[in-house]
Amino acid sequence: MAVQDGQLPTRRIAGGGRPRHRDAADAVPWSLRVAAATGWRFLVVAVTIGVLAWVLGYLATVTVPVGIALLLSALFAPLVDRLVRWHVPRALAALTAIIVGLAVLGGVLTLVITTVTASLPALQSQIDASLGNINKWLQDGPLHLTHAQLQELLNNAVSTIRGSTSELTSRALSTAAAVGGTMTEALLALFVLIFFLYSGSQVWRFALRIVPPAMRDEVDVAGRRGFASLVSYVRATAGVACVDAVCIGIGIWLVGVPLAVPLAALIFIGAFVPIVGAVIAGAVAVLIALVAKGFIAAIIVLAVLVAVMQLESHVLQPFLLGRAVRLHPLAVVVGIALGLEIAGIVGALLAVPILAVAKSAVGSLLRDPQLEPGDVNPLRPANARAVPDQPDTAAEGEPPGETSE
Hints:
Layout: E1 10-11, E2 20-21, H1 30-58, H2 60-85, H3 90-140, H4 147-163, H5 165-208, H6 213-255, H7 260-270, H8 276-293, H9 295-321, H10 329-366
Antiparallel strand pairs: 1-2
Helix pairs in contact: 1-2, 2-3, 2-5, 2-6, 2-10, 6-7, 6-9, 6-10, 7-8, 8-9
């Protein structure tokens, strides 16, 4: 083998013959080639996901209402489906579902507001008594604080609050300005929800047109399976939230903690954010029990919360959610953290449903991309296939999202 300046090493062929140059790629180990090929593909996927997340966060004023509308459409889809099977016109069925949802929401808000207003005087007296007991414990307990030390701590707290008055005022003004944006987003979500319930299949067929024809059927099945998982997740989560709110609310009421109804409503809302929401709502309930009724009551409320959470994690969620949408706790926590970073509280609320849909859709693409007899199809008839140039034909008794021409 001879090496000359500016030339690659050459190797002579056995039996004499013309020498050939060695390819530089032949010198790279096979394991390094596999690692490099895997690495650049992983980087492409990571950058794509990062850009998509940034776009969703940047357009949060639009994407968040659309996401909430999709979540609500999964919640109302069974009701619309039932009304359509009872030969109710689809427009009237969608309108009825929305009116029922708004009536339930308004009733819950009215009950919470009236309960809080009626309980404030008693709560204030209980808090005053509890503060007196805490003051006595600080003086006679293991800390042995003097009256002068307590007064100094109180003065420092008052001065801190007064010093942050301007900051509190600016926050109040920004909150008032955000109310208008929130109302606009709520109206957008309501508008999108109406069209999702009335003509969801047309929206889905339009979205399928961006998919290459060779993969259109598989993506169609994956999308329908993903939405079916979303329907199952929302219904199961609502059931779990109701059980949590009723059981914990009854426990709080039996202990005698004030604001039992608002706390139960808070627990119901928090249950839609798995793990994190239950912990925060439970912490608020324990804190109110500690301030209003004392240490023993707080311990009892904490025991009730732990018992209900164990019932939820070991019985309710496995039974209601099933294996189709079961997610690992690590994936849930990481997803909630990413959603919170991208879109705040709403992002944390939507993170787990997005993971459930993605798991079902990706699993459908990786497995046999054909509908099974037990698959739920909330968008289109189960025997319909995606046709590139022709719309699907509506059928009698079809799920929500179909329109009869």
